[in-house]
Amino acid sequence: METRYDELLRRLREASRPDREPPAAARAYAETVRRHAYRVSDADVERLLEAGMTEDDVFETTVAAAVGAGLARFDAALRALG
User: Fold this and answer.
1) Is 15 a domain residue?
2) d(CA 23, CA 40)
3) Domain contains 31
4) Is residue 13 a contact partner of residue 74, using CB atoms and an 8 Å limit?
5) Does some domain include residue 12?
6) Global pTM?
7) Per-residue pLDDT in tens (0 to 9) along the chain, 82 residues
């Protein structure tokens, strides 16, 4: 099903790369962002920083996981409508 947002969605998928594997230290964190973002705490981020990730790494992991989850839900909604 086509939408007027297809080009924007393509660019978002490309920029966020939601299908990439998160760093090993951030796999559980990324899963929490994908499934239960409201449970992410400052302590979770601190653990990632202590594990050697940079703030940029944490940000990119967070964005990729959140965008990936949102796009998966969007795709499911389009399938349900189609």
Assistant:
1) no
2) 17
3) yes
4) no
5) no
6) 0.84
7) 788 999 999 999 888 887 788 999 999 999 999 999 999 999 999 999 999 999 999 999 999 999 999 999 999 999 999 8
